Amino acid sequence: MKDIQYSHHAETVALRVAGKTRADSWSAYSWRLVRVGCEVGVAEHRILTRGPNKGRRRWEKAGQLTVVTNEEVHAEAERYEREERRCALCLGEKHEFKRVSQNGTEYKTCRRCNGTGAPPGEPALPDEVPSAEQADLFGGAP
Ligand SMILES: [Zn+2]
What is the pLDDT of residue 14? Predict the structure, then answer.
Protein backbone atom coordinates (compact mmCIF):
# COMPACT_ATOMS: atom_id res chain seq x y z
CA MET A 1 0.00 0.00 0.00
CA LYS A 2 1.91 3.00 -1.28
CA ASP A 3 -0.64 5.80 -1.55
CA ILE A 4 -1.62 6.57 2.02
CA GLN A 5 -1.83 9.65 4.18
CA TYR A 6 1.47 8.79 5.84
CA SER A 7 1.53 11.50 8.53
CA HIS A 8 -2.02 10.77 9.72
CA HIS A 9 -1.37 7.07 10.19
CA ALA A 10 2.07 7.66 11.74
CA GLU A 11 0.43 10.03 14.23
CA THR A 12 -2.20 7.39 15.05
CA VAL A 13 0.52 4.83 15.85
CA ALA A 14 2.44 7.31 18.02
CA LEU A 15 -0.75 8.25 19.88
CA ARG A 16 -1.49 4.57 20.49
CA VAL A 17 1.97 4.04 21.95
CA ALA A 18 1.33 7.00 24.28
CA GLY A 19 -2.03 5.48 25.26
CA LYS A 20 -3.94 8.46 23.82
CA THR A 21 -6.35 9.25 20.99
CA ARG A 22 -7.26 12.39 19.08
CA ALA A 23 -10.39 12.56 21.24
CA ASP A 24 -8.09 13.19 24.23
CA SER A 25 -6.86 16.38 22.48
CA TRP A 26 -3.52 14.76 21.83
CA SER A 27 -1.78 15.25 18.49
CA ALA A 28 1.61 15.32 16.84
CA TYR A 29 3.83 18.37 17.32
CA SER A 30 7.07 17.19 15.74
CA TRP A 31 8.23 14.99 12.91
CA ARG A 32 11.70 13.79 12.07
CA LEU A 33 12.58 11.31 9.37
CA VAL A 34 14.76 8.47 10.58
CA ARG A 35 16.17 5.48 8.74
CA VAL A 36 13.32 3.09 9.55
CA GLY A 37 10.45 5.59 9.29
CA CYS A 38 9.84 8.69 11.35
CA GLU A 39 10.14 9.90 14.90
CA VAL A 40 6.86 11.48 15.98
CA GLY A 41 6.36 13.66 19.03
CA VAL A 42 2.84 13.67 20.51
CA ALA A 43 1.45 15.73 23.37
CA GLU A 44 -1.74 17.21 24.69
CA HIS A 45 -2.83 20.40 22.97
CA ARG A 46 -5.43 23.07 23.46
CA ILE A 47 -7.04 25.25 20.83
CA LEU A 48 -6.28 28.95 21.18
CA THR A 49 -9.55 30.85 21.53
CA ARG A 50 -8.25 34.37 20.98
CA GLY A 51 -5.35 36.37 19.66
CA PRO A 52 -3.73 36.33 16.22
CA ASN A 53 -3.31 32.55 16.34
CA LYS A 54 -6.95 31.87 17.25
CA GLY A 55 -8.02 28.41 16.16
CA ARG A 56 -4.48 27.03 16.18
CA ARG A 57 -3.19 24.38 18.51
CA ARG A 58 -0.73 25.00 21.31
CA TRP A 59 0.92 22.02 22.92
CA GLU A 60 0.67 22.04 26.67
CA LYS A 61 3.86 20.37 27.81
CA ALA A 62 6.61 18.06 26.83
CA GLY A 63 5.21 15.05 25.07
CA GLN A 64 6.41 11.66 24.07
CA LEU A 65 8.77 10.88 21.21
CA THR A 66 8.16 7.59 19.42
CA VAL A 67 9.93 6.04 16.47
CA VAL A 68 7.29 4.70 14.10
CA THR A 69 8.51 2.34 11.40
CA ASN A 70 7.22 2.44 7.85
CA GLU A 71 5.85 -1.09 8.39
CA GLU A 72 3.82 0.13 11.37
CA VAL A 73 2.46 3.04 9.35
CA HIS A 74 1.37 0.74 6.53
CA ALA A 75 -0.17 -1.76 8.95
CA GLU A 76 -2.13 1.09 10.54
CA ALA A 77 -3.32 2.26 7.12
CA GLU A 78 -4.58 -1.27 6.39
CA ARG A 79 -6.32 -1.43 9.77
CA TYR A 80 -7.86 1.98 9.12
CA GLU A 81 -9.35 0.90 5.79
CA ARG A 82 -10.59 -2.41 7.22
CA GLU A 83 -12.18 -0.97 10.37
CA GLU A 84 -13.09 2.61 9.46
CA ARG A 85 -14.07 1.66 5.90
CA ARG A 86 -12.48 4.81 4.59
CA CYS A 87 -9.79 5.37 2.01
CA ALA A 88 -6.35 5.50 3.67
CA LEU A 89 -5.16 8.33 1.45
CA CYS A 90 -7.96 10.91 1.63
CA LEU A 91 -9.42 9.61 4.95
CA GLY A 92 -12.88 9.56 3.35
CA GLU A 93 -12.65 13.17 2.20
CA LYS A 94 -12.69 12.03 -1.45
CA HIS A 95 -10.06 14.57 -2.43
CA GLU A 96 -6.41 15.09 -1.72
CA PHE A 97 -4.15 18.10 -1.47
CA LYS A 98 -3.00 19.54 -4.77
CA ARG A 99 -1.29 22.84 -3.98
CA VAL A 100 -1.58 26.15 -2.21
CA SER A 101 -1.99 29.06 -4.59
CA GLN A 102 -3.19 32.64 -4.32
CA ASN A 103 -6.72 31.21 -4.57
CA GLY A 104 -6.17 29.22 -1.39
CA THR A 105 -5.69 25.50 -0.95
CA GLU A 106 -6.56 23.50 -4.04
CA TYR A 107 -7.62 19.87 -4.02
CA LYS A 108 -7.90 17.17 -6.63
CA THR A 109 -9.87 13.95 -6.77
CA CYS A 110 -8.22 11.32 -4.61
CA ARG A 111 -6.08 9.00 -6.74
CA ARG A 112 -6.44 6.00 -4.44
CA CYS A 113 -10.26 5.79 -4.20
CA ASN A 114 -10.99 7.83 -7.32
CA GLY A 115 -13.25 10.13 -5.34
CA THR A 116 -15.44 7.52 -3.59
CA GLY A 117 -13.91 8.04 -0.12
CA ALA A 118 -14.09 4.28 0.43
CA PRO A 119 -11.31 1.69 0.32
CA PRO A 120 -10.62 0.65 -3.29
CA GLY A 121 -13.21 -1.86 -4.55
CA GLU A 122 -15.87 -0.88 -2.00
CA PRO A 123 -19.09 1.12 -2.54
CA ALA A 124 -18.70 4.89 -2.40
CA LEU A 125 -19.25 6.67 0.88
CA PRO A 126 -22.43 8.75 1.02
CA ASP A 127 -21.98 12.52 1.05
CA GLU A 128 -22.22 14.55 4.23
CA VAL A 129 -20.83 11.91 6.56
CA PRO A 130 -18.38 13.72 8.82
CA SER A 131 -14.97 12.15 8.88
CA ALA A 132 -13.54 10.75 12.09
CA GLU A 133 -11.39 13.89 12.23
CA GLN A 134 -14.38 16.22 12.11
CA ALA A 135 -16.26 14.09 14.63
CA ASP A 136 -13.27 14.43 16.98
CA LEU A 137 -13.42 18.20 16.75
CA PHE A 138 -17.04 18.19 17.84
CA GLY A 139 -16.71 15.94 20.81
CA GLY A 140 -16.00 12.49 19.45
CA ALA A 141 -17.77 9.99 17.27
CA PRO A 142 -21.05 8.57 18.58
ZN1 LIG B 1 -9.40 8.45 -1.25
Answer: 98
Distance 104 CA to ligand 1 centre (A): 21
- CA–centroid distance for 139 within its chain: 17
Is 72 in the same domain as 93? no
Structural domain span for residue 3: 1-84
Q: What distance in angstroms lies between residue 118's CA and the mean position of ligand 1's atoms?
A: 6
Residue ranges with CB less than 5 Å from ion ligand 1: 87, 89-90, 110, 112-113
User: Are residues 18 and 77 located together in one domain of the fold?
Assistant: yes
- Number of domains the chain is built from: 2
Sign of CA dihedral 31, 10, 96, 127: negative
What confidence tier does 68 reach under pLDDT thresholds 50, 70, 90? very high
Residue 71 DSSP class: H
Q: In whole angstroms, give the CA distance from residue 125 to residue 136.
A: 19
